[in-house]
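Throughout our pipeline, every protein is held as a single compact record rather than as scattered files. Such a record has a labelled line for the sequence and another for the backbone structure tokens. The remainder of this section carries one protein's record, kept here as part of the documentation:
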Amino acid sequence: MAPNDSAQTTEEAKDLAAGRRKAARYAVPVAVAGVAAATIGLVPALAASSDPDLPKISAQQLIEKMAASDAQQLSGTVKISTDLGLPSLGGLADLGGGSFGPKGGDGGEGSSADPQSKLMGLASGTHTLRIAADGPEKQKVSILEDSAEYSLIRNGDDVWGYDSASNEVFHAKEQGAGKGHESPGPKDLPTTPKDLAEEALKAAEGTTTVTVDGTSQVAGRDAYQLVIKPKQDGSTVGSIKVAVDAENGVPLKFTLVPSSGGKAVIDVGYTKVDFSKPSASTFDFAPPKGAKVTEADELEKEHAKEFDKEFGKGAKADEFKGMEEFSGLNVIGEGWTSIAAFEAPGGEALTAPKDGEVPPEAGKFLDALGDKVEGDFGSGTVFKTRLVNALMTDDGKVYVGAVTKDALIKAANDAK
């Protein structure tokens, strides 16, 4: 018998607005794909032939069960499938050069093993990952490809990235963050249902309905189905379903369906999972013979040189990092329909690039994303995905959020 489906409103995590501010840093056109990369998910696990018969549980009890889960040891296989409605990202991975596109291999500076160079590829399509964890100090994520494998490993203070296709290695010391370098690692990538479920439950109070809707089996384990829905109109999020392990409270599957309908934008699910302690050797790594090893500090120096070439020695790199250099930041609305509004650096108009200013691949990508719009605010362009949209006005204003195009235009009109 399926559990009750009585609705409850979550008051979990009141920092959604802060999350919107973080997402807003990706409002520049090409980086709309960056938001997609930041919200990657995994496809559903193999469907069970029948739903398990579990004791009834309320939504609040299930949320508390998730919060109380202390499983820190596991290994398994997940699949990533993301459909944000983006055009093909082929050809974009190498754009920008230097600090914006680690080349490695025969591409010159940079390293193909740099974790940042792998995120763009996870923003669309289907991918298979193997993951393992033994507490916060030992973690491993491997991206499996047709004839190659990329692994990102954290073992104590050491973080290793290895690209078997190019035989390149990236290495960082977590203690090196004292010099301004923040070492990336598997725990920084939202590659499990738990990562995404935690973010989904950070909904503003009073704007979310949470219910329990039946049971399922994921990777051979019994699970409850938690359904999260925005109460507000204007959000691009239709609903989120999280399959929660009935025994230990670990999210096993995550599915986000857009308000526009159709197939899921993001799906997360284990196809295999084991909560026993992984072998210690799982996290061992030594650079293979003949591999090119790039240290994180060296890579940052290369990035700095490339930045100087591109923008001149007088430019400051931190001007390009995020919201700190955008002026007039304001969060409009609340909950799922929050919109971050700000002015572009220097208040400059966000005009379309002229012929020759961007590579052809980037030009086609931007054309496919953008819709010209007009309103009381004037005119501008809406850059769209099925999840995150951004309105960039011709007079230098930016509005971005997981909301519809109409919601962005209304926000811009109301701001006049």
About this structure: Helices lie at 16-24, 32-38, 59-68, 116-119, 193-200, 296-311, 360-369, 405-415. The chain has a mean pLDDT of 75.
